[in-house]
Design goal:
This protein is an all-beta fold. Helices cover 0% and strands 22% of the residues. The termini are far apart.
């Protein structure tokens, strides 16, 4: 988080949980793709989970087969 955790919905009031503020390259949205060389990872928002939770999915090929 940009504020070092101070705005965290659960731990924001506990100074022991603060950390050095960070910066971000970009905010990910549903369906955004991150490319890591030949690997494409897709971001999915997961409703019903902890706020801010994101799941990442990718295709896996093993022995020239993809499920």
């Amino acid at each position: 988080m940009l504020d070092g955790g101070k705005s965290h919905f659960h731990y924001g009031k506990d100074e022991a949980c603060y950390y050095p503020p960070t910066t971000i390259d970009r905010v990910l949205r549903e369906g955004d793709v991150i490319r890591l060389g030949e690997i494409a990872v897709t971001a999915l928002n997961m409703g019903g989970h902890t706020r801010g939770n994101t799941t990442f999915v990718l295709d896996v090929v093993e022995d020239a087969k993809s499920p």
